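Our preliminary data section would be incomplete without showing what the modeling component actually yields. Below, a chain of 287 amino acids is followed by its predicted structure, encoded as tokens that our downstream tools consume directly.
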Amino acid sequence: MADFERTVEDIGNIVTMEHVNVRVPDQQLGITFYVTALGLTRDPYLMTGTTNMWINAGRSQFHLPTGAAQVLRGTTGLVIPGREALLQRLHAATDALTGSAFSFKERPDHIAVTCPWGNRIRVHEPSDRFGPMRLGMPYVEVDTPVGAVDGIVRFYNEIIHTAARAKEGEAHVSVGDGQTLIYKETDAAQPDYDGHHIAVYLADFSGPYNRLLERGLISEESDQHQYRFLDVVDPDNGKALVRLEHEVRSMRHPMYARPLLNRDPAITNRSYAPGHQEMAWSAAPGG
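Predicted structure:
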């Protein structure tokens, strides 16, 4: 028998976390932060107008429709190579973002960044912690009331049928290859939920739908390929534990695994080198 640990290859029913959606009041300020400062890429094919934009980060995205600012109750993790180059971009964008909530601070293993409207982002360098990911969204961390973790784990295990486990006051939910949704307990007061959401793709699309439907948890019947739910509940008693809208898509959704363009922000018109303008979202095999 081959000596392989096969369980490390398991993902679970959620095959990828595609995007985090927060509304922004000012598209130009959003471009300054997400594209100029962070060095990410505006999707060139979809939402190219002045009322919404999609920002590519490896295989994931931020969706930023215009509206009253929404703030994720937690932190989005990003992997972006080139710490020093990132710091230079953040410093260079400071004047343009003055007067907003924008800030950044160096930490030993990441750069803590706050967007102009208060969304918290942790930017990490590629490392063994994130496997082959060189650019992407490895986790979203959600602030959660104390005592909720065990029920959250049961919800994802029993209703969504994806891998989840409790770990030192946190619920770690597998939401794709190298991606984790982390619910972190805190006793700090939380702001009211403002409507931000995440989008995930499921292999078994109908099973979780039926279990959510029989509990009255479906909040939107979007279309053939998509539905939504708002509340994560304890399956044992139906108690709502945390509100985070999930946009749930099937693997037959037309946009499943859509190739995303990611630019190399180090390339400018003065330093252009043919063939080097795109940034790989993962390392080459063995690299």
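The chain has one domain: 11-250. The chain has a mean pLDDT of 96. Preliminary results of this kind motivate Aim 1 of the renewal.
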